[in-house]
């Protein structure tokens, strides 16, 4: 028997008895950031491929929610800070070794572009829209002329937005559950999948819904593959990684994860979407709503379970 | 200049004087501590072994906390001491999540705080508060690059270990075993 205890009475707030430095703000932002990244990625992709008319919701309508969800996500992040008055320090430097720094700057790029994108497509929602000031008309013309460049910038920055949060978590070798390079691609796949689900929910075109059902199905497949390989990796890794994996294989996170994330969030939507593609008529809302639900629960579970996984004591 | 500390686990009795001295010297807020005492009991009665360690921030050479800080508030000072610049810290908590030794805590004033090897005392030629106060004199502090410093001498004489070296952090807190 080996017992290791702190005997001097340490009980640092949020650190002991178990690390809980990050609360609901972080998983909420992870979900909203991933969702925005997914929607903006498809908007940029289909603009570059010249398919704006084929996928009008993806390119022109769905991006309207992205400035709102990005701002709500950023507000959640701001509320999480312990030293709020100094938040601007994030923008006085760029630290290439800190994924959080990349994220701060990426959001600085993506949020304005999402607003510009909505401004360019405002006539889809308000057909008689007229800008009050002439210089906005000039800006509009400028961005329309350089739409391809804008789309490429949006494509790359939305991909970074989708992947960096996973890379951020995976860079913490102190949290064995997160310390896998699979987490970045997994978060990206999940973000793209929730973006496709949101587009599916908003789309009124049967052709577009079919296309995005196929895309979502493929992304769900990729997510399942990555999740299985993440666990295989943990079980073939060090003792602390095996202990981290056991949180999900018999430990306290087993039911929430395999039931809500994998079954309800991935397997059931995949089944429903396959049946719909084969021609069965099912209520089209269920699968995308389940995907969105699975996405947010996944972020909560990973954020909380990661803080439980540790090296010592 | 490479500051390091050595803890003689055979002489530490777990009195926690180091904990109290640190809290007094550094105005640590009530309810928080920058260093602590861990007791490890191994074996089955009557074959029992005990190891008592006074632990703190390890001021790692490959510090994950410095690497992940988005503003550069977590930084290396002279001698490899890891410090937090209060006015640069946004309190995001990334460094807290990245420390495998759980050495950091969020100070009520907003910034993240931890052991500083009493750099304000070391700059004046004094030893950190915990080292100065230890009644069994089991703490050694000094410059590893100076072969005649207390810590260099004792590390050459005794067997030592560091905590979770496999985490890759290259900690500078050595435990004499």
Topology:
The complex is a heterodimer of chains A (313) and B (177).
Chain A: E1 2-6, H1 25-48, H2 56-61, H3 66-80, H4 99-120, H5 122-125, H6 134-145, H7 147-170, H8 183-202, H9 206-235, H10 239-246, H11 254-277, H12 286-308
Helix pairs in contact in A: 1-3, 1-7, 1-8, 1-12, 3-4, 4-7, 7-8, 8-9, 8-12, 9-11, 11-12
Chain B: E1 3-8, H1 17-25, E2 36-44, E3 47-55, H2 64-68, E4 74-76, E5 82-84, H3 94-98, E6 105-106, E7 112-113, H4 119-122, H5 129-133, E8 139-143, H6 150-157, E9 160-161, E10 173-176
Characterize the structure shown.
The complex is a heterodimer of chains A (313) and B (177). Chain A has one domain: Up-down Bundle (Formate dehydrogenase/DMSO reductase fold). Chain A is built from twelve helices and one strand. With 313 residues, chain A is mainly α. In chain B, strand 2 and strand 3 form a beta hairpin. Chain B starts with a strand and ends with a strand. The longest helix of chain B is centred in the first third of the chain and has 9 residues. By secondary structure, chain B is of the alpha+beta class. The model of chain B has no long low-confidence stretch (mean pLDDT 96). Chain B has one domain: Alpha-Beta Plaits (2-Layer Sandwich), CATH 3.30.70.20. Chain B contains six helices and ten strands; from the N terminus they run E-H-E-E-H-E-E-H-E-E-H-H-E-H-E-E. In chain B, 20% of the residues lie in helices and 25% in strands. At the A-B interface, strand 1 and helix 4 of A face strand 2, helix 2, helix 3 and strand 6 of B.
